[in-house]
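hey so u asked for the seq, here:
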Amino acid sequence: MNLVTAVQALVDAGVDFVIIGGWSAILHGSSFNTNDLDLCFSRRTENLRRLARALAAFHPRLRDLPEDVPFVWDEVTLRNGTIFTLSTDCGAIDLLAEVSGLGGFEEVKASSILVRAFDRDVWTLDLPNLIRAKRAAGREKDLRVLPELEGLLEAEQEE
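ran it, structure tokens below
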């Protein structure tokens, strides 16, 4: 699994996205591990084209789709859905057009900060909004990381 390569390809292609989920937590100093990359993406037409082209090289497929069922990866597919759980040559990538507790891409981007990671400048949720999104998602794995994220926020606010 090499999600670094995927992030670099997306940034280099000019894709407008925000890192959310587990990798956002890691970028804020969390010790929790994650096996996938969660991204919120802009649904603007040109961005969908760039996103489709950038990930095409990594052979994306819906994770739970049987191998014998055809899957077309292109901007039309992206336009027709809002959540994509993908298996790629780089690893698992989840694409979301909206984030629980925050809203669509514009709201998510407004709740983000630019950080240096993966040898690129990338957008990730700021810590208060990452906590908000995790709480709104309400899944056990999201709730489990909240105490650590709240501790990181408290430490950040004391600086």
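The longest strand covers residues 36-41. The radius of gyration is 15 Å.
lmk if thats what u needed
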